[in-house]
Write a structure and sequence with these properties.
7 helices, mainly alpha
Length: 216
């Protein structure tokens, strides 16, 4: 039996359609849907997806935050609150056009964007496969985070401020924590998304406006 095409250490006991070769069980579990764009029909993906989603949903944030987050709630910083607003706006926009998008999916989307931001590189894909994101909402959040620029309310001559990787990670972590706190362990339904819609409606805030709203 051949060695795993990824680690070159363990025996390759699984056939991987995305890689066009064989892979060991550990690399399959570690890289699945993170660095490997798994086809929906993959038996290993189907069997383990519920377990992986449960782990992500129950993930506990690190004790010490990154950068500004370590000094208290980042929402007290208008610049970081502005980025967090863009994250929630992406979730709200996706929920409007996808009636089946639930609170659990919103949390998984934010965690998807956080993980990809942390890794900082793309996934392997099947040659010739349409490059449809594995998590469409997560990709929307990722775009919102990457494109967001802060324009201070003060009159300045400087260009809009770009966010660092630490800023993006801190805000994604904050939004994910806010969703978990709101749901209190009950991830079914759309309670958070409905509340999000009401908060935007009450404030009239959108990403292109100089208004901020309080996250959950």
């Amino acid at each position: 039996m051949a060695l795993c095409s990824q680690c070159r250490k363990r025996l390759a006991k699984r056939s991987c359609a995305a890689l066009g070769g064989a892979i060991c069980q550990l690399c399959c579990g570690t890289l699945r849907e993170k660095e490997i764009h798994c086809p929906p029909a993959c038996a290993h993906l189907t069997a383990h997806k519920p377990y992986q989603e449960k782990r992500i949903i129950k993930r506990k944030p690190p004790d010490a935050g990154r950068g500004p987050a370590a000094r208290g709630d980042i929402l007290s910083d208008e610049r970081l609150a502005w980025l967090s607003l863009h994250i929630e706006a992406a979730l709200g926009d996706h929920a409007k056009s996808h009636p089946d998008f639930a609170d659990k999916d919103a949390l998984l989307a934010v965690e998807y964007a956080r993980e990809k931001t942390e890794k900082g590189h793309g996934r392997l894909v099947i040659p010739g496969e349409a490059l449809k994101p594995a998590n469409e909402a997560g990709e929307a959040v990722l775009r919102a985070v990457g494109e967001c620029r802060y324009e201070s309310s003060a009159i300045l001559t400087t260009a809009p401020d770009a966010y660092t990787k630490d800023d993006r990670l801190a805000c994604l972590e904050r939004v994910a924590s806010g969703i978990r706190a709101f749901l209190g362990g009950k991830t079914e339904g759309r309670a958070y998304l409905i509340d999000l819609s009401h908060r935007f409606a009450r404030s009239g805030a959108r990403p292109g406006e100089r208004k901020l709203i309080t996250l959950s």
